[in-house]
Amino acid sequence: APKRRINRVNLTRRHLLAGSGAVLAASALPRASRAAPVSLEARTARVQLTPETYPATEVWGYDGRSPGPELRLRQDERLQRRLVNRLAQPTTIHWHGIRIANAMDGVPGLTQQAVPPGQSFDYDFVLPDAGTYWYHAHQASAEQVARGLSGPLIVEEAEAPEVDHDLALMLDDWRIDPATGQIADDFGNLHDLSHAGRYGNLVTTNGAFDFARDLRPNDRLRLRLINAANARIFELGLSGLEGWVVALDGMPLPAPRPLTEALVLAPAQRADLIVDVTAKAGETAWLARAERDGAVGQARFPVAGTGTKPRRDAPAPLPPNPRMEVTGLADARSISFRMEGGAMGRMQAAVLDGKRQSFRDLMQAGQFWAFNGVVGRTETPLVTAARGETLRLPIVNDTAFPHAMHLHGHHFREVRSDGTLGPMRDTLLVMSGETREIAFVADNPGDWLFHCHMLSHAAAGMTTWLRVT
Ligand code: C2O
Ligand code: CU
């Protein structure tokens, strides 16, 4: 218990340093408060994303910031937030990776109506799993997320590992018009829709191109990495730091995995790392990312002072989350799932709005991709599962591009070709030409999206859904 209290003090101090009074106020609310929920306002804001030779950039953010405020609660707590829409267009919030009640999932036209400008919607749900999650707009998300509507959602374990700093780092990728310093307004760009998605020209960590944080020798950190980019796949590594992956997409690994090779983080994926400072005072440690011509800094950690602790032993695994096992694989129903289309693909035609159309006609409609020959979300689900049924989906990527497939409301495991199961995830990166099978227990009733998280792809056809009755 004394350990936990120390943790709390650190967190409070960190929030104060970050100036996030709103987060403190929210967590200080009594759990069963009958007062109006704390609001989360979607509105425009000006943020200094770029070097100061450029003006501040107008973004769409939550509570005037992008990333939005860090929402940090305990496992099994209830999150209550009133989305207030101060934008000029409708919006919703999706709570990515949470095994949530369907009505709270934030998908317009499937689980709720989009919230019109000037109106609000109360989100209210329990957080069954500890881990690193995020929240983002789910209306016109290729534009709204690219403009900044996302933020970290952290669910703390009852017994969290002891660290000196617990840092959520949202990695993002912005397309900035170099003439104005503003977000490029080309959301209908056919090249993005049909190729790798909307890549940017400015990569940030927590909204800063030059994110830095001071550390001491031997400090231990928990880094909660979140890829909030529309399309960029990050390949990350450490310098002056020794690290272990302890969780992926919020879910603890049974054994921490030493980070010896690049960590690949596709859009919407998360990784929790435990990281020890090995750099000496006066040196700089880095979280770095691979670029075509070598590694560049993603987050800078100047090391100074004297460490108060000796180097620690390798971290223990995080406590597992409840009720998560994939069982019944042998008698599971298998649903074939083929991704087709895009530039340099071989899709000739597909069904859009109930009609078979040529690739050329689909292009005219700004649609480029299909799942099982069908473009975009249809009236009927891809599959209807009985609650508790185990489903298997061998995902065939018959396109020239990678795709990050995200399932709402559930986590799945990969069934590897040797029959072993991969880690629990909610988003799987499937490279061009690959077949990767996932399996999950459809135990959460409702209507759930299954889509590519390269958001331009989702907008251009890579969206379907399934129903759990
Ligand atoms: Cu994070 Cu449907 O998405
Ligand atoms: Cu895709």
UniProtKB/TrEMBL annotation:
<dbReference type="Pfam" id="PF07732">
    <property type="entry name" value="Cu-oxidase_3"/>
</dbReference>
<dbReference type="InterPro" id="IPR002355">
    <property type="entry name" value="Cu_oxidase_Cu_BS"/>
</dbReference>
<dbReference type="InterPro" id="IPR011706">
    <property type="entry name" value="Cu-oxidase_C"/>
</dbReference>
<dbReference type="InterPro" id="IPR001117">
    <property type="entry name" value="Cu-oxidase_2nd"/>
</dbReference>
<protein>
    <submittedName>
        <fullName>Multicopper oxidase family protein</fullName>
    </submittedName>
</protein>
<feature type="domain" description="Plastocyanin-like">
    <location>
        <begin position="169"/>
        <end position="289"/>
    </location>
</feature>
<feature type="domain" description="Plastocyanin-like">
    <location>
        <begin position="46"/>
        <end position="158"/>
    </location>
</feature>
<feature type="region of interest" description="Disordered">
    <location>
        <begin position="301"/>
        <end position="322"/>
    </location>
</feature>
<dbReference type="InterPro" id="IPR006311">
    <property type="entry name" value="TAT_signal"/>
</dbReference>
<dbReference type="InterPro" id="IPR008972">
    <property type="entry name" value="Cupredoxin"/>
</dbReference>
<keyword id="KW-0732">Signal</keyword>
<dbReference type="InterPro" id="IPR033138">
    <property type="entry name" value="Cu_oxidase_CS"/>
</dbReference>
<dbReference type="InterPro" id="IPR045087">
    <property type="entry name" value="Cu-oxidase_fam"/>
</dbReference>
<dbReference type="InterPro" id="IPR011707">
    <property type="entry name" value="Cu-oxidase-like_N"/>
</dbReference>
<keyword id="KW-0560">Oxidoreductase</keyword>
<dbReference type="Pfam" id="PF00394">
    <property type="entry name" value="Cu-oxidase"/>
</dbReference>
<feature type="domain" description="Plastocyanin-like">
    <location>
        <begin position="363"/>
        <end position="468"/>
    </location>
</feature>
<dbReference type="Pfam" id="PF07731">
    <property type="entry name" value="Cu-oxidase_2"/>
</dbReference>
<keyword id="KW-0479">Metal-binding</keyword>
<feature type="signal peptide">
    <location>
        <begin position="1"/>
        <end position="25"/>
    </location>
</feature>
